[in-house]
Sequence to fold (217 residues):
Amino acid sequence: MGEGTVRAGKVVEVRNGHWNDLLHELDLIGRPLSDIRGLVLTHGDSDHIGFAERLREEQGVPVFIHGADAHRVRTGEKPKTAMGPMRFFRTAGFLAYALRKNGLRTRYVQDVIEVVDGERLDLPGDPVIVAMPGHSPGSIAISVPAVDAVFVGDALTTRHVLTGSEIPQPAPFTDDPEEASASLDKLMEVNAGWILPGHGKPWRGSPADLVAAIHEY
Fold:
């Protein structure tokens, strides 16, 4: 998923190269940029950093990320990971989309606020941090009880960007697949009716059912 920005009791999805999309969505609900109180990143990969630095620099919006990914979000440094299964046209489509949305021109975030597991942020919606290391060391989910939803970033996916498969499954480009699989069990502790991944359609149902579907996969 792109990242969850919580403001005025609402949640907006933002992703790399989607600045104009954000402005459009804000216009639809009659809200200015100044209503944004914070940007919470699920992890430090470039396609999830997006316009965070622009929002921080131009609007003074604080950017939150788990401490274990703070270096990654500031520098872009990360280990090489196996791509895993892929289909040529699906992968080419993903790369074309990244180019179209300025995915190769990420501005890394110069100043972040580090968060920890279980922390409740002082932002509208009272988002709660759920540490889910594996995809990256500082990968997190963001539980927002006010909207009955949990953002999971790349802790899982409902659409594999390299194959096009649209079932709940592990995400590609994961640093430590075994740790990521173990972290999924933490979602079973989250009470939510919607699970929102960084890539793919939202999942309507309980986190426990989603985790069971992924383990079955």
About this structure: Helices lie at 19-28, 46-49, 52-59, 70-75, 88-100, 177-183, 207-216. Residues 1-16 have pLDDT under 50 and may be disordered.
